[in-house]
Fold:
Amino acid sequence: DADVTQTPRNRITKTGKRIMLECSQTKGHDRMYWYRQDPGLGLQLIYYSFDVKDINKGEISDGYSVSRQAQAKFSLSLESAIPNQTALYFCATSDPRQAQETQYFGPGTRLLVL
Amino acid sequence: KQEVTQIPAALSVPEGENLVLNCSFTDSAIYNLQWFRQDPGKGLTSLLLIQSSQREQTSGRLNASLDKSSGRSTLYIAASQPGDSATYLCALYPFGGNKLVFGAGTILRVKS
Structure:
């Protein structure tokens, strides 16, 4: 089984709808992240959480919110989706106790907002 | 503000060729630099991580180098194979920062 899972894998929604993307991990990592990827722009950080009680905005948090329900779960919400939120969304985890901390990514959620 | 640039944006080579992917960054104050591979539908996988104090890391046919003074890193792939076809992303942790800064990636196609 994959260590970091994302649901749904693909989603089509309409402008103005509320949508939630979910991320679960079995790695036991405290740190979790949400990114979006647009063609030609690399990954941009939306929100990150260093533990259940710690939530921080990334570089492009406007229009998004998150919830860290447990160590293993980190959800991203679009309160009122708009077309320019069409993108590929990735969740990631990391463990600062590792000598060389790297991030482990989920498979991504492809979102289309019409 | 740290910026990461990857050149070329896309590369197509015949199987067996040795190749180099380039990554440049504007601020040499970094904690580490990583190379990731991205396959469609499978997310990102970390290939190599170079700490700030290191010059290079090797894993199988892959070798990554880091030159902080010139703000450059290269990923060398020896004897390329069709299975190497993917998008390769460079990312770094700035000193005093708490997030990875990514380049836009290089799309590699190895033709059989």
Observations:
- Residues 31 and 52 of chain B are 5 Å apart (CA to CA).
- DSSP finds no helices and eleven strands in chain B.
